[in-house]
Amino acid sequence: MPRFSIIVPSHGVAGRLSQALDSVLAQSFGDFELIPVCRTPDCSAADVAAARAGRDSRVAPVHSPPADGLAAARNTGARAATGTYLLFLDGDDVLVPGALAALDARLARTGDVDVLYFEHERTPWWEGEPANPAAPLLASAPDGAFAPAAAPGLTGVQLPAWSAAYRRAFLTERHLTFPDGHFTDVGFGGRVAAEAERMAVLREVVVRHLVRRQGSRLNRPGTHHAELLDQADRVLTRAAELDLPEARRAALFEQLFAAVLKTAAHPRRLPSKRPALRPTLPLPSRRSPRRAFFRRAGALYAAHRPPGFRTPGGTLGVQHRLLARGAYTAFRALRGANRVLTAALHAVPYPRGLRTRLRYRLHLRRPLDPNLAVYCAYWGRGYTCNPAAIHAKARALAPHLRSVFLVEAGQERTLPPGIDHAVIGSARYWEVLARAKYLINNANFADGVVKRPGSVHLQTQHGTPLKKMGVDQSTYPVVAAATGSFAKLLGRVDRWDYNLSANRHSTQMWERAFPGSYEQLEYGYPRNDVYYAATAADVARARRELGVPEGATAVLYAPTHRDWETGYGAGGLDLAAFCEAAGEDVVVLLRAHYFYDRGTAGPGGGRIIDVTAHRSAEDVCLAADALVTDYSSIMFDYANLDRPIVVYADDWEVYRETRGVYFDLLAEPPGPVARTPDELARVFRDGTWAGPDSAARRAAFRERFCEFDDGRAAERVVRRVLLGEPPEALPPVTPLAERVPAPAATSATSALVRS
């Protein structure tokens, strides 16, 4: 049997799960088994776990439904474990280098113990200065193995489950499992310490815990805080049954009620009013959740207070005495809840300009319009991308909704006929933003927009991330300087209810780049639906509109933006020279990054067609026989067409170090890679661009990045977000092998193989 079994539930932390698993697999001490616990065999986390299992036989994934919660996931992992000692990691924890070797060495010195407590670091989500809260708790414990009576203050309730190693046979013999519900660590930790006969401590950091930006789920408002009382009751009842010594019972009682009083005194954890009545529910207690929590806590205090218990001094002692007397009114006054509420109200942001501010605040007082949806794309650049595709589908599936598209002044003329719109900054702009129930954007709404209760914000994104995004940009000075305030960015993220993803890679990266409490929708990108709906006639129409000569091979050249450049450049590529070298029938469709609507192609005559300002990127892709790009996310969308892609990476090392990337594109490209203009021309001249190796690379790329794009993404979004249909009622994703993308132009057929 292995020395250690490391159990890693992945629920809700798939974006960092790979780091957790890799931190275990990189340990110098190798006698362990690693048990990732995933929601289902086909979830994003399961893919991460399966990849590690395929490379290392010590990895043995198991599954536990998300509805069963964290406790069930840990218990599932524990049942599958065979190691002598169990360790529990959260999916966003990592083992520090040498952790298992240090644990093994400590256990070799102490002999078998029921539980070995160790230190851990809590690192802020922005990777700031870490804290070590366990160190003071362990400092006074004896040096060797000891009976719990020798350290009565070590009760287990102040340490998370991932700050200890547990002897598996001890847990089995005493039937110790994680109790259901919230605050499961409190119930488990208290029971373990109460039942243990031999303990030891290791005064070294073993686990590094990344504190979530959105905070612990346990600290969020809600009636679930009442479950803390359930856990405290269970632990104290068991302590009484075991007839623990007075000092241990007193320490356990004091620490548990310190947590209870902290919750009772926190103005935002417990709602102040009863939930609204529904006809199908019985009449709830007239007491507010805060008052009910306090009353029940007082009853438990009286029932479990050990004989001779002395209340602590200071403010905490006052709270103990008020709780013992059931003096809720006095306790409420002590909290100073009104001061906290007033400060929170003053922090609500509003748009600039006194007149605009007053109008906006007035509209915010009006009821939400349940049939109003507001859309915006690329900060108001026009009717495009995922918001436009969702808007078009909503007109068919949800005709009862009124839709308003937000555009910059001067962009109104670019809108298709019949599209209602509001100019950004206008009086109507602020009115619809205040009144709309649904707000849909592929970027972000202005900082002054208030997230109203009952409104639904959908972030559609506008590409699959190769380059670092969001808070992951913070360590790259050039791009971080251009990003602005990360605090403001995260304030915008906090408004999101849903975030759209085209593949599991994106799901994981969005979770890291934009930490928040939104729900991920793995539905595909609606803008890519056209790649499976378009016909040969649509392709021919697009080519005619763009001016592609009959019989020409159209190569779409789409370079991305460089953060260190201030204007458009073709990445050092001479497009006219490329056309001459690639072949007489090759024409280039130049589409610069959307930052450069006025980008020009330079000299080249009729063989270079500047399509930067063309409204539809999808039409441009349909018209192209092949794509040449450097690091633009257009490659992920174009891959849906299953047409050749060539990567031109003349400055990859500079881009990677300056901008930051999520994976090595040159190691996993969607087709041939060229590093110089001569290499790029040769790829087209000798037919490599469309050869079998190109097709094989593209197939692997599509398998990874075209996962959810099947032509029905917009339908799934409309049904789920705008119509409120449950996930199980949505159209399932069509397998990649069964999808039929739009046909390429027949004029390119003769160019697929060149001599």
Strand order, sheet with most strands: 3-2-1-4-7-6-8-5
- What's the overall geometry? globular
Percent helix range: 25-40%
Strand content: 5-15%
Mean pLDDT value: 87
Helix/strand structural class: alpha/beta
- The poorly predicted ranges are 276-285, 337-342, 344-349, 595-605, 747-755
Largest sheet: 8 strands, mixed
- Could you give the count of β-strands? 21
List the total number of helices.
Answer: 28
Rg estimate, integer Å? 30 Å
Q: How many angstroms separate the termini?
A: 62 Å
Task: Give structural notes.
Helices cover 38% and strands 14% of the residues. With 755 residues, it is of the alpha/beta class. The longest helix has 20 residues. The radius of gyration is 30 Å and the shape is globular. It starts with a strand and ends in a 33-residue tail after the last helix. The C terminus is likely disordered.
